[in-house]
Every structure is written in structure tokens, then in C-alpha cells.
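FORM 7B - TANDEM STRUCTURE REPORT

SECTION 1: FIRST PROTEIN
SEQUENCE AND C-ALPHA CELLS:
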Amino acid sequence: MLQRRPPCFVESETRRDGYPDAQEVRLILSSSDYCSSLDIGIALKFFVWIGKQPNYSRNEQSYNVAMKIAGLTDLALSCFREMKLGTCKPTKSMYFSIIASLCGKKGRKVDEAIQIYEEMMQAGLVPGKELVEAYVGCLCEVNRLSDARRCIESLHKFGFSIPLSYSLYVRALCRAGKLDDALALVDEAGCEKHLLQQYTYGSLVHGLLRQGRAEEALEKINGMKQLGFHPTVHVHTSLIVHFFKDRDLNRVLVTLEEMKEHGCQPTVVTYSALLCGYVRLGKVSEACDVFHRLKREGTSPDFKTYSMFIDCLCGTGKSEDAFTLIPEMLRDGIVPSTVNFRTIISTPVNMFNTSARGQRLNEVEEHNERCSGASTSEDRPLSASSA
């Protein structure tokens, strides 16, 4: 039946009854998790076949792994429904896996996600913050705002504070481009408005800048300063990205000086914004200085930072400078990808591609937004002294 045996299958065949047990089935499925699509397909066929054999019953762990490697296919939903009809009960991690898959941009199934999320609530399982972010973010992107709000308003039953709950909603609205809805939500917060602003102003500033509403963003920043809250590193990084897009180097330098005055240490995302911004302005030597300063100050560049810098350099025809980064990557224990080499080799074709440099800044901006969300979503307000 199987055209090719999954890894670990030979060891499983040593059992007397000829069939692996539930633990071995889980290992077989897990070993295919990061293999080729052919291996995954064979493993899933094996999972279906073994479930039909006598004297074998699946357990929660094997179902969970099968749903994980099935990804966004209908088989994941089929496994989940079959499991509920049997003796196995879905665990919190299973609900998270299936809902996160259904909420993904590729193969999104919103109605099924809503149904399964409500089942999880009825089962009394407490949703984690990451699951709420994925679920509410999906609902905002497809304009199911009433469903998103109903989810947010139910979180207090599971111990979520009101500011944290609504900050998740505001952030999801900002990421979905529904900035006016987010601003209106904060304004109607009533007595919780001041605290909610502390949780969400970074997301709001970022969203305003992305929509080109810089004056509103600066007004909000100044308002928070008057309350004693200085911009976080992620807000500063958003400003740097915006000023580079406006080719306003003076305001970039002012922002950096303000960060220094308030002891706000740049992150690797901030340095990435500086690298791509300087290259976009044709200031390659300044970009190289920033890169070496990054390494001197102990903030090791990651693969994404190296790749962004390579792309930006190659976008201006500086393939020789880009190629010198390859040995540095290796010395830092980072393996260059084939895309890195292809980008360097194909530089003569792309040397006048200015749109690629703009795309690099957009990627930095999106990365900064994700980092900002992760850092401000804790169940506590910002403190005036910590900003």
C-alpha cells in the first residue's frame, strides 16, 4: 500500500502483532514534520490506514501530530472531527493548532474557525494570548468585527484584564488597516482610556505612520510625553522608518539623539531600519558604519538583518560590498542561503531597481510592528520611568 516507508517505520515493524503502537505512530508522524511533501503525504496515508486496523486505537498525541503536519488541508479538519466522535477529547494545544491553521492567510476558513473557537469556550478551556491574537486578527482582516468584539468582551471570564483584552483588539485593528476603528475604540474606553492608551499607543502610532498620518502620530507621541511616557524603542524605530521614507535625514538623526538622551537602546530592528534607510539614500558608507557599530555594541545581526543589508546593497549595484558580508555571516555562525548568493550574482540586472530598496524598508516596518506587539501586550501598563 505504501509506496515509500516513512522514517522510523522499519523499527516499528519489529512488533509481534505487526502493527506499531500509538507511541510509535506518533514518532512516525513527527519524523515527517519537516520532510518533503511526499514524506508528509505518505505519513498521513499511513495514519489513515493504521486507524482502520483491528486492535489499534489512536490517542490524542497522534491526532495532534497528524493535524499539525496536515497543515491547512481538509484532512486536518477531518482528523479533528473524527477525534471528537471517538473517545479522544481535544486538548488546548489541539484547539490552538486547528484554529491557528484555519485563521492563516492561506486556505483560510473563517466560519470553521469561529465554530471551533466557540466549542473551545464551551469546553471551559482558557485561550492563550497568542491564540486570541491570531483569531481576532483574522476576524478583523475579513471584517468580522462583531465576532471579534464578542471574543474580546468574553475574555474577562478567563482572567484577562480589560486593558489587555482591548489592547489585543486595537492591535488587530491596526494591523488590518482599520485605524479609525481602533482610534474610536480607545476614545470610547471611558475611565479605562488612560490605561488603555498606555497599552496601545505604540500600535496606534505605528498604524498612523503607515497610513501617512505623521502629524497625528507625532501629536499622539507628544500627548503621551506630557503624561510622562516617553516613546519606546519600537515607536522610535517606526519614526526612523517613516523619516527615511520621507528622505528626511535630519529628523532621523534627531530621533536617534532623543533615543540616546532617554537611554533607549536600539534593537537589531532599529539597526536594520538604519541600514536600509541609509542605502536607500545612497549613503552606503554610513550604512556600513552602522553595521559595524551594531557588531561592536554586542547586538549580533541575525540572518534577516544580513539578508536585508545584502538586498539593499545589491539594489544599488554594490555587489562587491554585499559579497564581503558572506564571510562575516559564516564567522557569526549564520549559514547564507541560496537566495543570498543569487541576489549577489544577479546584481547587474537589478542594480537600478529602487523599488526593491523601498520593499526592504517595508519589511523592516512590518518586523518592527510584530516586535512592538510582542513587547507591549503584557498584562501591565507602561511605566513612565521605563519608557
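SECTION 2: SECOND PROTEIN
SEQUENCE AND C-ALPHA CELLS:
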Amino acid sequence: MRVLGVIIDDGLNGMAHINHVGEKMSRILNRLTIAKTRRGLSGRVLKALYMRALERLLVFADPAWWTGTIRQVIKITSIQRKALLAAMGAFRTTSTIALQVTSGIEPIDLICEKEKAMYLVKHRAPTISFLGVGLGNPNLALFNETWKHPGSIPSVRWDRNSHSQTPAIYTDGSKLDGHVGAAFCYFGTDTSGEFQFRLQEPLLSVPCGTGFNSASPSMETSQHTI
């Protein structure tokens, strides 16, 4: 069964997905080998293709299927070995470790471990380990979603015929020294006043008017705009 690009079988051991990815990698490597022979692709280009495409294909969604068992490590390393042989143009008798050191490419099982650890960190897992070492609670700067859907923002209540005796603030656009600005006037029970601000947007007078009344937060105030 395939779910969001991950192959799941009854064993739930990740081997079905690794075998599927291995078959796909073999087809891609066959084409790259032909292109290297006929089109003269250099090993540097093949290495870049591996790092940017094939490696991402190997570790795709690995937190869902990677457990780090011996079977998984052996199988996925053999898949990486085929790619390194094609990129380096080495003999088939060259050891996998020598290919990884010569090409400067990290072992694929370590990449899988790193990807899984990063996933657990981002989702604040209670226990996180990397290469058998517990990371505890790493102090990382995590992304916090601050955007809110417009439908979840409470609407402003507009009262066009307010007869409240509480102090009122009226806001509008204004001209100040020939430039666009904003203004508001304040009417209280025994005080009144008007203020002008040189701003880019007249609507910014609304928070200015609100800030004027912040000195008395316990006093109820109604704010009006034109």
C-alpha cells in the first residue's frame, strides 16, 4: 500500500519502501550511466545530481519508515553504493567506505539518522537520540506560526448610533503641512481635544486614538471612525 509516497506492507519494517526506492534508483542510474558515456557528464556533475536529487529520493519521509535496523542499513547502503560507483567511475571491487571517503559523501544511514532526529526536534518529541546519544531538550529556535486565518480573527463591532455617555474618540484622515496624515479628536465629560499625526496611512489614527486612552484602562471608551 502506498500512502503519500511511502510504501507500507504488513511487516511495517520499512523494507518494502527501501526496496521500492532501490528499484527506482536503478532505473535512474541506468539513464545517468548512458548519459555519462554518450554526453560526457563528469563525475562532478553526477555527484551534484546525487546530492540534490537521488539522496533526497532515498531519505524521503524517512521518519515514517527508518528504524536503523541492520537489514535497513545494509540495504540502503547497497543502494547508495551503486550511485557512488556511477558518480566516481570506480571499479566494482572498491569498498563502500572508500567510495564515501573519496567522494566526500556521508553514509546514507547517517543521513537517515540525522533527518529523523531533526524531525523529532521540530515536533518536540519527549525523547530524542542521535547515533545512540540522547540529546535531551535541545535549545533550538523553532518556527512559530503567527499567521492567522482571516476567518478566525474576531470582527470589529461598529455602532453607528451610539448614545453612550462614555468618552468618545473620532478618527479621520488629515492634512498636515501639505502631506497626508491622520487625526483624532477626543470628547470626554469635561475635557476635549484634537490631535494630528503625519502618517502614511490614515487608518493608523485608530491605534493612535486607542493609545491616547491607554492611560486610563479601567475607563470604558467608545471609538468612532469616519
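SECTION 3: OBSERVATIONS ON SECOND PROTEIN
The longest strand covers residues 168-176.
The beta strands are 2-3, 6-7, 129-130, 133-134, 168-176, 179-187, 192-197, 222-225.

SECTION 4: SIGNATURE
Preparer initials: ____
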